[in-house]
Amino acid sequence: MRLFGSRAESPEAARPIPRDVEALEELVHRLDGASDEDSAWRITVESTVRFYNFGYGAIWVPDSAGRLQVLHESGPLVPQVQAAGRNDPGELVNRALRTRSAVFDDNADVATGCRRWQAAAKAGMVAAAVLPVVKGTEVSGVFEYYAPVPFYADEARKEKFAAIVRMGDRARKSAIAAAELRQVANDREAVTTVVTRLGQASDSQTSIKAALDAVRTAFGWAYGSFWAIDGELNVLKFQLESGSAGDEFRRVTLAATFAEGVGLSGRAWRARDLVFVRDLAELTDCVRAPAAQRAGVRSGVCFPIMSGDRIVGTMDFFTTEYIDLSESRAAALRNVQQLVSQRLDVVRGTERAAANARDLLDTVDRLRNASQDATSVAEQAVARASAMTAEVAALGQASTAIGDVIKIISSIAEQTNLLALNATIEAARAGESGKGFAVVAGEVKELARETAEATQKVADQIAGIQASAETVANGIHTTSETIGKMDAVQARMNDVLAEQAEMARALQG
Question: Residue 267: pLDDT above 90?
Answer without folding.
Answer: yes
